[in-house]
Write a structure and sequence with these properties.
The longest helix is centred in the first third of the chain and has 13 residues, at 6-18. This protein is mainly beta. Helices cover 11% and strands 42% of the residues. The chain folds into two domains: 31-112, Nuclear Transport Factor 2, Chain: A; 251-348 and 358-647, Beta-galactosidase, Chain A, domain 5, CATH 2.70.98. Bound molecules: copper (II) ion (CU). Copper (II) ion binds next to strand 24.
Length: 664
């Protein structure tokens, strides 16, 4: 969910103005580099010169990646062919234009009916403005004692798709409002419950106002400034990550070198951080691990049937875009003081470059844990190395929530993808002031009472990652190892052990075996890895990378429920498909008001072969958020992650060669 109230836009503009950027820009020197400011200006000019783009509103101007084979064959100094993919909307149509920036021409135009682009910041702001000026809403505010519209801010809630006849074919947004008269830094803390406006985004008019009765706005303190948190605890000594002799990583253009790792990083409007060409320098030999990895979808369904709540089933990437909602990172808090910060250039609704400062940070940290160690008690000997890792981080403010998305590399050849959730939980205004109140049982059916007059509604968070793994080359196979009990015959005193039954996936689809409740999830006794059947390590075992996956809460929903159909990529925890550059996002390209006919379940119906094939692994992370008192007024960071871990990729522990002492 996204909010862009006036207040917030002003705050952002001010912050942007105040931040003299000491950050590095993504310099364009590589075929996968993000579009530069100049390239965005050029793409816009070329597109606007075409008569088909009359009344065109730009939604997305992004790099159109060269073919994978070209990227893999590219060497520094080779000429670059640069292309942009431009998406816009004009009336009820979506127009996709491929622009050849090198030839300065339009390469192709596709006009699509029946799909909707994600909502833009400009659209949200305009929708909020019309709601704040609507006579019915003003009257409803007055009925609740709000006469000064400056003391109210509103938030746009995408409404999904529910086959409601009156909504068919329209581009709609629900807007709910908040009392901000006492707000300093929390505008979501005081919902004006049961009052919603439905906005027709094409006409920018209020289609309908639903006023379902007055719930007095909570009087609780929901700010989280130092003033609001008083009395404060004693001041602490600083705990810092220090690198007094400098960094160990090198950023050259958009390519990062750190230890034996090399990879490319860019920033996109929809996906945020995109990591490409992650490879390991194995004693002079460069070995590919992952061609590309990024978060492909984020789905947050709330579990409340009320009028303003049933439709809160947000696809934060497909309906909004986490890159375009990225917020600047603060040195010393969001990232260590010594981090390297990167700026990015996106495009606004007019196609003009939209510079975003400090949206990515890269830093090393000593985890305080050993990378490995052994103490030998008989010899009183010790050998160990400190665990240092490299983090590539972004943060996205998707409405009330803030998400941190990390790609973490370590010296043991591992890559971890992490999502941290913080910010403000979705609050609902209720009558109950305490659990002893008569209305409490009813008020807390769908959430926890977290403050007088406020419940935090329970919900889920699901994150899908698209991983184009190339383990020692593109041709890979997906292996499932299932632990299975083996009975031992007498006279062995042991009755049973387990052995592992390997299975190679032949056809695309959900990995693992069918589980329960219509969900083909992973049982705990299954291991997943991607192997290369043409490459072996010194011992002759196939080289591979394991997907270490733990956070896989399931989406508990009737399969015929619209959110379940639209988020049908949650039917499994891990999916495998053959590489297809057009299959980018787990729930499909056009998710706003989608009907569940796009994405992984549809693609995999083709049952394509995935054996010895360039394959893509799609990993779902999920959590049920049963809310608690400690989630307000601002939620402590909560991390979920999975890890790519070498499995017979090396001949031994790749971190055994770390030096015992740091450089002097
Ligand atoms: Cu949550």
């Amino acid at each position: 969910m996204q909010i862009v109230g006036r207040t917030l836009l002003h705050a952002c503009a001010l912050m942007t103005f105040l931040m003299a950027s000491s950050a590095t820009s993504f310099a364009q020197k590589h075929p996968l580099d993000a579009l530069t400011r100049e390239e965005i200006v050029a793409a816009t000019k070329i597109v606007l010169a075409d008569p088909r783009t009359r009344d065109f509103k730009f939604q997305l101007i992004t790099l159109l990646e060269p073919d994978k084979s070209q990227v893999l064959a590219w060497k520094a100094g080779n000429p670059l062919t640069r292309r942009a993919s431009v998406t816009g909307r004009s009336d009820a149509q979506v127009i996709e234009i491929d622009v050849d920036l090198t030839a300065k021409t339009i390469a192709s135009v596709r006009i699509l009916d029946g799909v909707e682009v994600p909502i833009s910041i400009e659209e949200s702001s305009k929708a909020i403005e019309v709601v704040r000026q609507d006579a019915r809403m003003l009257q409803a505010f007055k009925n609740r004692g709000f006469v000064d519209p400056k003391k109210i801010d509103c938030a746009p809630f995408t409404i999904g798709y529910y086959a409601i006849k009156a909504h068919e074919g329209q581009r709609l947004l629900r807007v709910g409002c908040f009392d901000i008269s006492r707000s300093t830094n929390n505008i979501f803390g005081w919902p004006i419950e049961k009052l919603y406006a439905l906005v027709d985004l094409r006409k920018m008019t209020v289609l309908e106002v639903v006023d379902d009765g007055i719930v007095p706005v909570s009087r609780a303190e929901m700010n989280f400034t130092e003033l609001a948190a008083r009395p404060l605890r004693p001041v602490e000594q600083p705990t810092l990550i220090a690198q007094p002799r400098g960094k160990n990583f090198v950023l050259k253009g958009s390519e990062v070198s750190w230890g034996n790792w090399r990879f490319h990083v860019r920033f996109e409007n929809r996906q945020g951080t995109v990591i490409s060409l992650a490879r390991w320098n194995d004693r002079g030999r460069e070995r590919h691990v992952m061609y590309q990895g990024y978060m492909s979808e984020m789905f947050v369904p709330y579990m409340d049937p009320d009028v303003g709540w049933y439709s809160r089933t947000y696809f934060d990437m497909g309906e909004y875009g986490i890159g375009h909602l990225a917020s600047p990172l603060k040195a010393g808090i969001d990232c260590p003081q010594q981090a390297t910060f990167l700026d990015a250039v996106l495009a606004d609704e007019k196609g003009d470059p939209d510079e975003r400062l400090k949206v990515v940070c890269i830093f090393e940290r000593n985890t305080g844990d050993p990378a490995w160690r052994h103490y030998e008690v008989n010899k009183n000997s010790y050998e160990g190395r400190p665990g240092v890792e490299l983090v590539v981080r972004m943060a996205s403010q998707v409405g009330n929530y803030d998400y941190l998305i990390d790609w973490v590399f370590n010296h043991a050849g591992e890559i971890e993808a992490r999502v941290g959730s913080t910010g403000i939980v979705g609050l609902k205004g209720v009558t109950a002031q305490a659990m002893r109140d008569a209305s409490a049982p009813d008020d807390t059916k769908t959430g926890t009472l977290v403050a007088p007059g406020l419940t935090a509604v329970q919900h889920d968070h699901f994150f899908n990652f698209r991983l184009d793994l190339d383990v020692d080359g593109p041709a890979n196979t997906f292996q499932t190892d299932t632990y299975s009990r083996v009975q031992l015959p007498p006279p062995n005193p042991r009755r049973s052990i387990y052995s592992v039954i390997p299975q190679l996936l032949e056809r695309e689809g959900i990995a693992g075996r069918p589980n329960h409740d219509g969900h083909e999830g992973l049982p705990p006794d299954v291991k997943l890895r991607v192997i290369n059947e043409a490459k072996t390590n010194n011992m002759g075992n196939f080289v591979g990378y394991e997907i270490v996956h733990a956070n896989h809460a399931h989406f508990i929903a009737d399969p015929d429920d619209w959110p379940a159909k639209r988020a049908a990529f949650l039917q499994g925890d891990v999916w495998v498909t053959p590489y297809d550059p057009s299959e980018k996002y787990a729930a499909g390209q056009y998710v706003f008001a989608s009907k569940g006919d796009q994405g992984l379940p549809q693609w995999t119906q083709k049952s394509r072969s995935v054996r010895n094939t360039d394959l893509v692994v799609w990993v779902n992370l999920g959590m049920h958020h049963l809310t608690r008192a400690e989630d307000v007024p601002v939620m402590p960071m909560l991390w979920h992650s999975f890890r790519l871990r070498p499995f017979n990729f090396f001949d031994r522990n790749p971190a055994v060669d770390l030096r015992s002492k740091f450089a002097k």
